[in-house]
């Protein structure tokens, strides 16, 4: 059985994201004093006592307003409630009972999911009980006085919560491949996520900045689990003001860091922009596996050679990502989207792969026999003594040589290509660390000193 889902429902600015951060034990959800910051539903792992579950943050519910994103936020909250084992209705104890709270309570009573009522912002224990008492009127049972900021009162609430969850011995959490969807604003990241899921999981709008949180969604395909992370579009730094967008972009950068594979989405109509080049550099610096997803392919007039022409143009700009897989898709029509997860599997396997020292040195021996290391004007030639893989994710290989300065960029690229061609590192960067003779002697001295101790 998959992890049960707990949906957090409430009006705007009652503290839902702060509460979710408290239960998840981090500060991943954006908290900012402005209504409408959370729009999509975002899933986060949490636990209490012996129970693991997923907690879902949702946008603030307003039933009598059809402006901007509010109808779409309602759809997302309703979708979260449909799949939830239990809902937590969060209200604002300092603000008091509102007509909006009454409307949400009436709607929740019509649903077939258990509801727990949590009265937030009750920082004072004595005053908090009086603040919570007002909410008995909603007819949803005991109102728990809590403080999402300080954590007070949440223990009693969670004790009640887990009685609505299945026993711990029925739950198995699969290993998962984390896939971050990254790109500039309006390149189709949320549309791509929806196409991969086959449902409207993220709000799609032509308005730049629609997605704000990094939205996690898990899907199962066969025996494999994928965590798809939709992110906010990343604009040029000089165009970003402090506030909601600033926090959104930081979440996007963190999503790159915690992913195994990045789906780097590029708008085929715009081509590879300067901002795309900067994002590509950021992804490489983080050492992530990459799939170049060239979106909006349905909008391009084509003949038999069009795809090769576009591929050549894109890779000319992203020449430093020549190892990445590339696919031309339409998130709008679904064209080729079904092939993406197969490419993710290949890239993730390469990213995690470990190769024995003997195999690495076989590749080196053959590479050197075909193309000897360069010789300097003084007649001094580079020598590679041996290589070994020191870590994975990404694969990192240490090459022990007589002098790293004797190996120019062309030869280093040649060795990199040999490892890729012979070992099949597809879709992942491979880091080569060139260590000189002096470094080897220092390491040997350090090992001897350790043995003496």
Automatic annotation (TrEMBL):
Pfam families xref list: KH_dom-like, MMR_HSR1
An MF annotation (GO) of this entry: GTP binding
Record domain EngA-type G: where: 4-169, 177-352
Residues where GTP 2 binds: 183-190, 230-234, 295-298
InterPro entries, A to Z: G_ENGA (IPR031166), GTP-bd (IPR006073), GTPase_Der (IPR016484), KH_dom-like (IPR032859), KH_dom-like_a/b (IPR015946), P-loop_NTPase (IPR027417), Small_GTP-bd (IPR005225)
CDD domains (UniProt xref): EngA1 (cd01894), EngA2 (cd01895)
GO biological process: ribosome biogenesis
Alphabetical keyword list: GTP-binding, Nucleotide-binding, Repeat, Ribosome biogenesis
Key word Nucleotide-binding present: yes
Function statement: GTPase that plays an essential role in the late steps of ribosome biogenesis.
Complex and partners: Associates with the 50S ribosomal subunit.
Protein's name in the database: GTPase Der
Gene symbol of the encoding locus: der
């Amino acid at each position: 059985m998959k992890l049960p889902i707990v949906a957090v429902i409430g009006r705007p600015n009652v503290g839902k994201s702060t509460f979710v951060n408290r239960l998840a034990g981090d500060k991943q959800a954006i908290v900012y004093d402005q209504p409408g910051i959370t729009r999509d539903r975002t899933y986060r792992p949490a636990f209490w006592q012996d129970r693991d579950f997923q907690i879902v943050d949702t946008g603030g519910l307003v039933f009598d307003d059809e402006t901007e994103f509010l109808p779409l936020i309602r759809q997302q909250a309703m979708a979260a409630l449909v799949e939830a084992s239990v809902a937590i209705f969060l209200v604002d104890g300092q603000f008091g009972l509102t007509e909006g709270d009454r409307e949400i309570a009436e709607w929740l009573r019509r649903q077939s999911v258990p509801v727990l009522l949590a009265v937030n912002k009750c920082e004072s224990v004595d005053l908090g009980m009086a603040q919570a008492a007002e909410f008995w009127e909603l007819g949803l049972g005991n109102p728990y006085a809590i403080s999402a900021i300080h954590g007070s009162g949440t223990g009693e609430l969670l004790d009640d919560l887990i009685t609505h969850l299945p026993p711990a011995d029925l739950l198995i959490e699969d290993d998962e491949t984390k896939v971050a969807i990254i790109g500039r604003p309006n390149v189709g990241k949320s549309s791509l996520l929806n196409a991969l899921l086959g449902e409207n999981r993220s709000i799609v709008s032509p308005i730049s900045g629609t997605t704000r949180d990094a939205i996690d969604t898990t899907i199962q395909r066969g025996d494999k689990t994928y965590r798809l992370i939709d992110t906010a579009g990343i604009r040029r730094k000089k165009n970003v003001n402090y506030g909601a967008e600033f926090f959104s972009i930081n979440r996007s950068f963190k999503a790159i860091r915690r992913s195994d594979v990045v789906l780097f989405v590029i708008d085929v109509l715009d081509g590879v922009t300067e901002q795309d080049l900067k994002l590509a550099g950021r992804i490489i610096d983080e050492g992530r596996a990459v799939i170049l997803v060239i979106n909006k392919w349905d909008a391009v007039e084509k003949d038999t050679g069009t795809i090769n022409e576009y591929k050549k143009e894109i890779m000319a700009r992203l020449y430093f990502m020549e190892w990445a897989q590339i696919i031309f898709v339409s998130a709008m029509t679904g064209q080729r989207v079904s092939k993406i997860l197969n490419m993710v599997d290949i890239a993730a396997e390469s990213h995690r792969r470990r190769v024995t020292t003997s195999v690495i040195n076989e590749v080196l021996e053959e590479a050197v026999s075909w193309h000897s290391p360069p010789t300097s004007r003084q007649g001094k030639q580079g020598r590679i003594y041996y290589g070994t893989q020191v870590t994975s994710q990404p694969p990192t290989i240490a090459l022990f040589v007589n002098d790293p300065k004797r190996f120019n960029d062309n030869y280093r690229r040649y060795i990199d290509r040999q490892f890729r061609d012979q070992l099949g590192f597809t879709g992942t960067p491979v880091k080569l660390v060139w260590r000189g003779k002096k470094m080897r002697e220092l390491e040997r001295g350090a090992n001897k000193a350790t043995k003496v101790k």
